Structure to design on (546 residues):
């Protein structure tokens, strides 16, 4: 039996098989069986209204008498592919897409129509879809993002774009792609074979400070770029990244600031600003004082947030003004661009402003003494203050009345002399603590206070008194010389050497007195007596203090 596959490409092979009779009986002779090459080619995307003819399957067992029929099995048999059981014509029932499935494996055989027996083994063949250029190139990304340093040389690689074509790369040029640039001239170019985008202009034309962002449109065309090929496009957003090609520049050549003479070390005197067209680390800068009479008096640091130079005082003398030269430069320098200069200079003049300081007393506190019997208006002492600004501003003095509620003292407003307003008594208050105020006449807000401690000096203005009232009991018939009581006295005054009292019997007690008083060697005396009288006796003792 011979099976004939009528297709687009045919090749001949020979193979011997056992034959079968039409009625299914085995024959005793051997027959030759042959078939052509086992591939059919079918054009994809057929648009005709009838079934698409593929080819013919022909068996040697078919005598043309209608006793055999052809049977088809395998991928898509009966749905995608059908065979005419009478003549072996093979058709595709609908349009097929090679990009979905490139080939189908089918099997065909012939059977006896009456008995249903196979008249020969199945023959396997392939229906391969013949590609047409029905797919446009597709880029792997709709939008690409790339970057390249500014000032790059011509031909510097930026980014590679890639497109693919679903058509058969083994058949014709349907999947042969060529890249071209449709937007982005003259700044960039694209390699037609690899899709690598490169810079097309030199360093002088690719300046980020002039233009930072570019949008490039790339086309990929199949059919090797020939006319009639399909095209796909993509957008490439390219950013020029910064390089340090610009030095910092001061916004002005001369700055002037003022600082109060009372400013503390480290406080800000002023800020100077420099600009840099670069960005990021390439715009970072630092400031230094390089010369001037204020080099040792002031310092400058860089505010990392604002990139400003902050001038601060260290420890300056009282001088009307200072001048310093400030230098600014980048923290990172690109040697390729040193010809443009890497630093800038500015002059800073600092004026020291006088601060109106409060009056200054010549002592931190004053100690004064006055006798307690001093007359009203008597001078107690004096205080003195001066203006530390050196301009000899007139001062006036006064007493803080919160420290002298009884208004015992006053101070002369012009010369600071402290004097009495009322008489004093040391036995009531031995010390008085007051506060004297010095005020600038031309600026009353500038005041100073100083404490004044006043001690009252004692005079003997108080008579001694007995320490208590004495009531003494004595037995009658007491022997002469018997001590019956010790008495003592006190004095409110305060002599520096202590008190010395002299005791004696008062005149009222000397008549027919049975008692005597003797010094006991201190501030007390002993009373002695001898009497035998019934009733109450009152003893009068007089004394004086020394």
């Amino acid at each position: 039996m011979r099976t004939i596959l009528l297709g687009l490409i045919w090749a001949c092979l020979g193979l011997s098989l056992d034959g079968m009779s039409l009625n299914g009986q085995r024959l005793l002779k051997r027959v030759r069986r042959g078939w052509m090459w086992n591939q059919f080619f079918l054009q994809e995307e057929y648009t005709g209204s009838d079934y698409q003819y593929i080819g013919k399957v022909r068996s040697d067992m078919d005598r043309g008498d209608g006793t055999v029929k052809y049977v088809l099995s395998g991928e898509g048999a009966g749905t995608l592919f059908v065979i005419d059981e009478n003549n072996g014509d093979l058709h595709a029932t609908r349009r097929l897409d090679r990009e979905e499935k490139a080939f189908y494996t089918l099997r065909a055989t012939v059977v006896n129509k009456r008995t249903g027996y196979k008249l020969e083994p199945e023959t396997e063949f392939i229906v391969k879809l013949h590609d047409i250029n029905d797919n446009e190139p597709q880029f792997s990304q709709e939008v690409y993002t790339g970057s390249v340093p500014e000032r790059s040389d011509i031909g510097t690689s930026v980014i590679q774009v890639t497109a693919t074509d679903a058509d058969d790369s083994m058949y014709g040029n349907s999947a042969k792609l060529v890249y071209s640039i449709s937007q982005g001239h003259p700044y960039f170019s694209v390699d037609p074979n690899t899709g690598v985008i490169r810079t097309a202009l030199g360093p002088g034309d690719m300046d980020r400070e002039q233009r930072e962002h570019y949008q490039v449109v790339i086309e990929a065309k199949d059919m090797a770029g020939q006319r009639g090929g399909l095209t796909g496009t993509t957008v490439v957003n390219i950013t020029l990244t910064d390089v340090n090609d610009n030095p910092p520049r001061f916004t002005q050549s001369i700055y002037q600031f003022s600082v109060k003479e009372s400013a503390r070390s480290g406080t800000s005197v002023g800020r100077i600003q420099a600009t840099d067209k670069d960005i990021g680390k390439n715009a970072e800068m630092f400031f230094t004082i390089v010369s001037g009479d204020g080099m040792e008096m002031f310092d400058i640091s860089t505010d990392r947030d604002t990139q400003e130079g902050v001038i601060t005082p260290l420890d300056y003398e009282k001088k009307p003004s200072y001048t310093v030269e400030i230098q600014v430069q980048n923290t990172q320098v690109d040697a390729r661009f040193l010809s443009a200069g890497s630093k800038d200079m500015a002059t800073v003049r600092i004026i020291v402003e006088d601060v109106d300081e409060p009056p200054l007393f010549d002592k931190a506190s004053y100690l004064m003494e006055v006798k307690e019997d001093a007359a009203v208006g008597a001078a107690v002492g004096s205080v003195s203050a001066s203006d530390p600004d050196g301009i000899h501003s007139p001062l006036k003095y006064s007493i803080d009345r919160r420290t002298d509620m009884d208004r015992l003292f006053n101070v002369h407003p012009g010369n600071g002399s402290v004097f009495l307003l009322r008489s004093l008594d040391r036995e009531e208050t031995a010390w008085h603590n007051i506060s004297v105020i010095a005020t600038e006449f031309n600026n009353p807000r500038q005041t100073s206070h100083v404490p004044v401690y006043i001690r009252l000096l004692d005079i003997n203005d108080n008579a001694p008194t007995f320490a208590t009232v004495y009531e003494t009991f004595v037995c009658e018939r007491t022997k002469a010389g018997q001590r019956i009581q010790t008495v003592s006295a006190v004095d409110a005054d305060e002599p520096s050497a202590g008190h010395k009292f002299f005791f004696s019997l008062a005149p009222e007690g000397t008549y027919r007195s049975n008692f005597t008083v003797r010094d006991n060697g201190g501030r007390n005396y002993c009373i002695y007596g001898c009497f035998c009288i019934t009733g109450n006796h009152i003893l009068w003792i007089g004394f004086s203090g020394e």
